Fold these 3 entries.
Entry 1:
Amino acid sequence: MVVRKMNRQAKKEEMERIFYPRRLAIVGVSTDGGGRGFGIGMLTGLQAMRYVGEIFPVNPKGGSYAGLNFYKKVEDIPGQIDFAIIAVAAKDVPEALEACRKKGAAGAEILSAGFSELATKEGRELEHEISEIAGRGIRVVGPNCFGIYCPRSGLTLLPGPDLSRISGPVAFLSQSGGMAIDLAHKGKWMGLNFSKVISFGNGADLREVQLLDYLAEDDETGVIGMYMEGIKDGDAFFDAIKKATRKKPVVVCKGGLSAAGQRMVVSHTASMGGSRVIWESVLRQVNAVQVQNLQELAEACLAFCFLPRRVYRRLSIVGGGGALGVTACDAAENFGMEIPALAPVVRKSVEELLPKPGSSGANPIDVANPFVEPKILQKVLRAAAQDDRIDLQIIVSLLYHYKTMARMLGKPIAQVAPYRELAELLGGVVRETGKPIMVVLANPKRGVDDLDIAEMLALARAELIKNGLAVFDDLHEAIRAISHVNTYYEKRIKNES
Amino acid sequence: MNHNSVAKIIKSALDEKRSCLSEYEAKLLLAIYGLPVTREVLVNNADELKGAARQIGYPLAIKGCSSEIAHKTEQGLIHLGIQSEGEALAAFEEIKKKLAQGRGAVLVQEMVRGSRELVMGMTRDEQFGPCVMFGLGGIFTEILRDVSFRKAPLNESDVREMMREIRGNKIIDAFRGMAAADTKTLAQMLIGLGRIGLEFQEVKEIDLNPVIIAAEKPVVVDALIVLG
């Protein structure tokens, strides 16, 4: 019998003190080196984010910065602390962590590198020491990580002085700090709002299993994203993620599948069951949503946030050009959806609204002219929603064409393109019809000549998001994101019945 | 279920420092877990062969049976569709000759008829422990690699899903006049493989190929159990 050494389960109260700390120490704040250090980076980051609690910077040499006096030792901080950010050299981390534990901290994030990731004896021993201190009563995020981002409290990742302070339903767990900060930045313009983002690095204490357990129960979290390379305990992970997906979707990007080591095997079964195949099977078994990269993860999370919980089978698509119809149907079929012809009476009312000739009220609906007014598009989508078979509508917006009109009128494109009106009217159609609308902001003009289009589309995106619409760059990606929602709810509904 | 008899089969192989069970031993083990296997008798001489042939009835499959041979087809140790005592004796002699260098007896087996071949198996993943496989069998296993896996223990819905997950999932449906395969038995077989993996750490890999659908009933026709 193999005795597994399990990391301790996380208690809700201690986790709340970690994510929403009122008194926070930063150990290892140095003004030397022009502010390039992790500690000073965090201090300025937290201040820029308007972190809500009190900050206690620690530096053995003392000093001050940005209106805060440095304490020489953790012990000198008056009273208790809730959480600590540790950014000292690896060899000094155990002592700092122990001091924070004695100060009553519920947890600490260790940004410092120089542990098991070095694959040296010293590195592994230092990390083991951290795990042991953690076992005595302080939860550890890291080492070798970018820390925690929590919009509600203002905790931020390294280096993240400009992340959003708007809370939302998306949680993200990542072994990689780079992925964590990338998604946090991506979310800001894509319309993903976060409950918590945790970069856990080497995961000496808190890692996938404990964090999944916590986030599954966390009322602020509605969808969990994960990026991971390896896991510590397959059975515990299996149980934790299975439990989590019963409550909320878990979107997983598993890295390092291609580096599967070659094993000496005799049977066919073993040679077929490489690491990739087994991972994919296990994730399917627990009803996790599998994605190939961070972009797809963000898109899947976006769909989960914007779409009511159900399965979407039949779509209507509004756009321009005949080829759109073909590619849309192909994409839908690939992902198990269809774009059915609209009911004759619906088609007739749609066609009455559209400019002639060249338009079509079949599904996909071809508006034929990129300058069809938002008011007309509103009516078209409203009419198409009357077809009972349609579950969801996608509009491929042709706003970029307004550059031609802008040139003609001698005005900036952002003034000419009617994105505000479009966003408001489409938002209204969703509320009215109860059928979600996704917007694809197509832009084939991305060169330096067309920076004004990129700017206008960024403004349009923000406006659309404000009106409750999910925005994608590409039709195929939008449909793929819907298919992730479908796969998840299909199995969840089946399991619950 | 007789846990002890399974332990005994495994122990005797390990005591002899073998890394595989013979096909005969493997099927004994599988049968204890309720998997349907071919009717078969192990024989050492021509008299036993004749007796076995009468008992099982023609046509027969006659195979070399040794724990040292994993892939028998390549080595000419399988004779299928034996219709008479004369053919049976000839096959027996030929296999005996090939086995002469090593240990092993000859296995006389019912010839299972069915045009649908499946593969089932169990492998141990470093992270997830015993995982059960289902897929297209026979020569298609390696050509198409159309298989699905689930981590043990498997429940009913895991098994239903993994059978539907392969591209060739129609193979278990009613097709061209053939009845639909008995999915209830298939499900029990897959669940059983997961249990073997969980209950016997010594079993490293299992490979059942082919599992033939005879009329609608699945039967394990060849089996490899790797220890380690």
Entry 2:
Amino acid sequence: MTFGAIGICVLLSLPFLYVIARKPVLRRMAFRNATRRPREAALVVVGSMLGAAIITGSFVVGDAMNASIRQVAHEHLGPVDELVLAPDQATWQLLSGRLIWLRNPNVDGVLPIETMAAGVSFYKGGRVTSAPSSQVVGVDFPAAGRFGRDAGATGISGAGPKTGHAAITSDLAKTLGAHAGDTIDVSAYGSRSKLIVDAVFPRRGIAGFNLGQQQESRNVIVPPSAFDAIRGVASAYAAPPDYAVLVSNRGGVEGGVARTAAASSAIRRAAAGLNPQIVEIKRIALDQADATGKGFTQMFSTMGSFGVIAGLLLLVQLFVMLAAERRPELGMARAVGMRRSWLVGAFATEGWLYALAATLLGTVVGIGLGRALVAVSEQAFNTEHNQLRLYFVLRPASLAESFAIAFVIALLTIVFTSSRVSRLNIIRAIREIPEPPTQRRRRWIVAGGAAGLLGAFWTVSAVGSTEPLGLLLGPTLLLFGLAPFAARSSRRAAGRVSALAAAAVAWAAVAFALFPAAAEGAPVTIYVVQGIVLVGGAVMLVALQQERIGAAIKRVNPHSLPFRLGLAYPLARRSRTGLTVAMYALVVFILTFITTISHMIDRQKADATASVRGGYAVLVDSSAANPIPVGDLQAYHGVRAVAPVARTSGSFTVAGMSKPAPWNLTAFDDRFIRNGAPRLDDNGRFPTDAAAWRAVLTNPNLIMVESTFLQGSGGPPNFKASVGTAIRLEDPTTGRSRDVTVAAIAPQDGFIASGAFYGLNGARQLFGARLVPTRYYVKSARGEEPTSLASSIQGHFLDNGASASSIRDLTNESFRMTTQIFQLFEGYLALGLLIGIAGIAVVMIRAVRERRRAIGTLRAIGFGSRVVGRSFAIETAFIAVEGTMIGASLALLTLYTLVTNSDAMGDVSFSVPYVPLLVLLVGTVAASLLATVAPAVSAARIRPAVALRTTD
Amino acid sequence: MSSPILVADSVRKVYRTGSDEVVALDGVDLTVAGGEFLAVMGPSGSGKTTLLNCVSGLDEIDGGRVLVDGLSIHELSDSERTKHRAREMGFIFQAFNLIPVFTVTENVELPLLLAGMKEHDARARARATLARVGLGHRLDRRPPELSGGEQQRVAIARALAGRPRVVWADEPTGNLDSEMAAKVMELLGELHKEGLSLILVTHDPTVAAHADRLITVRDGRIVADEPLGTAPVPTTVP
């Protein structure tokens, strides 16, 4: 990819390098013009680098997410590539005996391992610290140290602790405050063992072995003989330990993944007859890292694309400005014999220099932006129940790719603009006479006819298939194609084309509300297209109706001369005003969109909490090796009722998946329904939620999932589960499976992470004795405060590894994280505003230069310098207000139609965040005015005699 | 003779470019009577436009004093001088210098609004003045839609609409063909006959011939000052 990206850049640069090497006149023109006015050159470079910064920033964030999840794979798996699961100890011993002798060129290590959940406590100086969610890992130390032929990657060293001793991971040591030589208490299966810490191992490889998603690994690592001693006697309620054989492929921690398929076949052959379940765990982890990284890159770049498009419009403005200033020179160059193609060449070569400098600078700024985004993201992602350390990495391939994208976009824009600005009439250019409007009616009619036909066909096919892009762009293209026909009669051209533009805006706003099926599972990019169509149509409409808008505004203050002067130019210069308004509208559109969604989700907090908690107040998790007896919890002070549920990780397959993906599963019994199960998002064909819950409980062919089921965890692209979705549910350990159907949609419960809900009896048939209730939904007694009750339960059932939280606190924490992520997006998108503000500054600088003589005349006939300055401020405010109003109102309109007419946004209700929006709009206009201060002051300082001087 | 509309006393103007100094006006003394039509001629670079800019208050001076209608304009602040220009003066430039985004009427009513006239009255006066210069049929056009001669007539209307005491014209026919130039000068002549003080810079003797008095400027000094009216008018431009 790196070479491909660099290759494209070099290939596109060849014509310019040729000009520089072989065309001395063009080279001189390009270089001297680029360096003649350093301030202007700097303005062009800085203005155009923002797009590159946005693109690079999104790649850096994606790489950080990818690297961070890969780091989890390094820490939790190390050399482990495949996990071969055994349903019980006897099978495991047989399996280990077979695989230990596996000789295969793709495999360089086999290691039997057993794990069990445990609670660990440490008493020191009268103070107790505990780590309820820990695990005991039983492994042969010397074998583990050799595993995968990379001792450093296993995290294990030494011959292993003797009886009564153990090694612990640095995470556990940190949680407990324990060091080598200290004695810890390990509780599992009702027995308590005292172990002396021999060594503290880093969280890496076998030492850090952990199948959970969290970064921390609180492991007590002991030899197999000690493991059996610690386990004690399992109660009937406890889950048995997990037994597995780890397999390492040749080729290092990440390199071995390429041999996964071959190694899996070899394992399957070696374990024939034992029916082992092989989990390609490294591949899954790395695939997930890639998918998450790409997802973040796509999310940031999609949202950032509004800013990038605004940046392109700015680039066009900058180039047109340069060309306008040099018109007489360009005219003279043509007059003395320079061909138009040469002029394009000289201009484009100058642009190539700017694009190169801007993209290089933008890439550097983008790295800084990405670094800042990663730091802020890390804060957002780290809450009490979610830890994710983010690693800032710079991948040359990503930098090359982002550079290439930014460079190519900038270069194409520059070449196109150079070609346009080089079309000039020599005499008009020399004498600085404005070019008349072009008369290419016939060409427009042909183009419009073609576009209209294409749009009509696309519309017909898209309506039939509810294909979102066609549904959005087909009618838009049809309307666009009609515009040249509507403009044929000049008398009513503006009115007719305005009507077409209004129709395009209306269509883009309501398309997905009228065809909600098209929005289901549509890629995010479709919303970018929607935003662009909306903004484009609205800007065209406004540009065509500027006279009326201006007349209406003038009524506000008809006697003010600055008002009149300030509005005159933007109303008369429709194209230029339209470009700048579009820049504002694009950026404000996406900012308003994100701000409003964030606000609506936040407002849903109370309702979501009520849905998730049902009749319960507190959620208690306990160790699978030593679960809390239900009777004990039921009898605890402040507890009114308890509903135990069993949690496990199942393997799920839906249509479109070649391999199953892991997802949480919660198995419930009648008690869960009796005390008030969560409120469903969709109870399917059942009359009530309770009926749906009862059907799933009693019918093992039915299951209940949340709307985000399998999203981001190996599910098909753009998959969204709905009532009736067919699913294959499988126990990853035994391979037993059942085909089930989604009966209802459960609420998303954030950090509670229930996953799919399934009846306990049906789940036991699949998962067997390993499935034991370890989670308890607690209904509190009247007047009992949930947070205090949770804290009290956690302290009381410490030996059972209890971890209790108020359900309200859990959902609030989840909402807080979501809000922070949205704020992160807003901060990132605000960068696009800089483009809009830079755009208005450019327009004003250009205006001062162009209107120098007009300003001189106005000053000569009696306009005061303040009036001139004020008129510039009014002009800026008009453009900024028009752009922000268009962007904000279109974003609200789109969201309103989406929320009220489709279920794409779930259960959120439409609501306007007045205060944040007001801050956004006022801030944008104020920042724009600030950006205009310098040009306005310079306009006000123009001395009439100097501006008007021609000769003498 | 009526009281002077302009008195320039030892006016000096120096342009500085880096370490170079160019003396554009070197102690110019000039008096123009009210209602007089003065033409200023001289070769390129002689200081004609600079003289016009300095004595009208558009530009600063480096020495001397200028009284316009008895008021020492260079002792006024920029703001006061601007207001004085709006009330008492009209300007006509070679390049017309109309505001391209305003209609013809809007261009002409600008100085009236600046002088504080009500919008309705300003519009009526602007229309009447445009009719006076023969543009009553072009009221709602924008300047780029007009010919050069028409644009200059709009500029004249703008200069006259406020009924100024004095009109300064810098090469008003410089961008026009001879037929248009003759029409414009005929119009200015009529206005002068109605009592308007007119100070006009030109290269063209046929244009200067319409004036009451001609001064010639060379190297920043007035080298000749002669009354006209009896002198023959050349028929060709040298």
Entry 3:
Amino acid sequence: MDKFLELEQVSKAFGGTRALSRVSFSVGQGLVHALVGENGAGKSTLMKILMGIHQPDEGRILLKGRPVSIANPVKARSLGFGIVFQEIELCPNLSIMENLFLGGELHHRGFMRFREMEKHAAEALNLLRLKLDPKTPVSELSVPQKQMVQIARAIIYKPDLLIFDEPTSALTADSVQHLFQAIKQLKQQKITVLYISHKLQEIFELADMVTVLRDGQHINTLPVSEVNEDKLVQMMVGRELELSARRGEVKPGEVRLRVESLSGRGFSKISFELRAGEVLGVAGLVGSGRSELVETIFGVLPVTEGRILLGAEDITRHSVAYRAGLGMALVPEDRQFAGIIFTMVLKQNLSLPGVVLGAREFGRLVISGARESKVACETMQKLRVVAGSPEAEMQSLSGGNQQKVVIGKWLLLKPSVFILDEPTRGIDVGAKAEIHKLIRELADQGRAVLVVSSELPELLALADRILVMREGRLMGEVCGERRCEQEIMRLAVAGVE
Amino acid sequence: MAEGKLKLVRNLFARHREISVALILGLEIFIFYLLLREPGRAHSFINGDNFLMIFKYSGIYGIAAIGASMIIISGGIDLSPGAVIALTTVVTGHLFVESNLPLPLAALLGFLVGLGTGLLAAFLVTIIKLPPFIATLGVMGVARGLAFIITKGGFYDLSQKIPEHFSLLHLPIEYWPGTMMVALAVIFHLFMVYTRWGRQVHAVGGNETASYFSGVKVRRIKFFVYLCGGLFASLSGVILCIVHGQGRADVASGYELDIIAASVVGGASLSGGKGSVLGAVLGSLIFGVLRNGLSQVTGLTFYERLIVGVVVVVIVIIDQLTVRKENKI
């Protein structure tokens, strides 16, 4: 088999972190080559280097035996590299054809050459066996059809190498099959495919070769026929677990939160119990319905079926404010979008839930700024929020300190059920450790804590039990001796056979 | 030491936008004092009668601006106040002149009709979930249209039936717009700054999603502010009707944009979360003084609109420059 693309000792560092260190492997001509690894393994950095978005610090890339430099995305395109992104990035108000040529319209002295573009668009759609008129507005397409248009957009430039970046995360099971057929079509056209995914089943169905990356290092490249699921998971996870000091054995108290066959947007039939004094983790890949589940429990998203009980009370139909008043708190996944109000200063952000619920700490009739400052100072001390003063602008705080504010605003209300969705995403190591400590303290004080996280080491360090979700369903619970990363990955990625 | 004081002053200005708006107002009055000074004669600008006049006219804008600024702080916009003012004057005038109802009753009913338009806007924005711009544009059309249907092209003259030196609660009617404006501005400024409801209006304007995630009943807050928008516009209409003795369908046209401009000059941001009631009322006074003064400067009659437009833009530019500086430090 001819070597189409070769990577030799490719390294890339961002500041102090090495995203890729001396990665070498080759991709055969006309094959579907899968690239797997956990979050942060270096998959996307590698992809961005191939697309000319980043430049490698060391090493070289050879295309058909000749070294090439990929200085920018335009160069990548001219070398014959195309990419299909994870998110759908189409303009819904424009037609398929207009989307395909967006930014690269064919023209003659500024006048669009519609007939030529239509011809090329029809060819691309034909190649993917899509029976669609290129003039159809994208807004009229289904999600899988839109995904196909994304692929058509990449093949319109007749690439030799097509990179797929987790293309199935937004797709349903049957549209995944459509996608696979399209990829097999491309393979017949002698197009080389680099397929990035962490869904193992897909790799066994689709790929000829697989490369495993872990912590920026190349672990192995081998034919898919020579590996099985367990071996692959082991290669992906394989490192020593970085456990921070675990909590001692806890005796869970009474049931604080009970979820009974709950269904909502993006998940269905989920049941579990959460007891006082325990930390329950929720693991799963992005898009598995974790965030939707906790937001539904908090009343932000609607329940379609099932019940939620807080203590003994059925809160399924109650408002966010009512739930918060009964002692439930949620730290949302997206801190900027759903956590912070940037037009208000630090102390006002900290006091908001208390103010909404009429907490007496801020004064009876009117809000006293002095009392607000006093409460804010206490919270800031407790969480070690580094800020100029209680009147500091939220923009001036670091990500870690902003996150502490989003957590801290609930502390005054002493919630009995504390839900944290990705509590340490994108914050520095020091703040992360402090938030972990806080979560343990909350549980030690007898609160029931639910933690959603994409980082398995974090869940393993914090949680007493871990629920694993996949595609909106609860795949199982990991606890006690079975508590290990591989088991969770197996449930999250492959499911129970 | 001096630097510390400078920073303190700068902080004071950044936190309390009303101070700089008041300073601009003072500067404006000083400029007109210089321009209109004529040796040996009483000053035509700086005198009690003229100030009463300024307050009488600015009060109509200012009272409506209280509600409008609350809506803008919540992240919305209201295009209806001018039309609602007109409808209120027409309904009050019709009931008083044609139906021979006593003035207090006619005024009350006129006020309730205006309040009803606020209710309609609140309904369209929070229940039907129309964008505020479209919802209040619709309300504007409906209110102005109803006013024309009722008057059939004419107008109601109330002045014949209102006594020459009419006064209410021992306060001559000419003093009412200014007095009401100042009193309501202070009350609702304090309401917005110091109460739970006011804080939640600011929160919704700053980040609706984050407010919802913190337990704020976003729809209830929005309903409340649009209702307030109708309330203050219609109060302004009743006062206008009695003070000027007319109920006209074409009165207060274009006020909505002047009121929005006054709120923005007073420190409100059209993207929500920022601004104050006091700032908006001071903004209305800036425009009132500007119009009054320009009308007295000979030879500037045709320049009035141009100058008003330039002043709005310049004040907002200065504000943006100072805010940007603040953020850099």
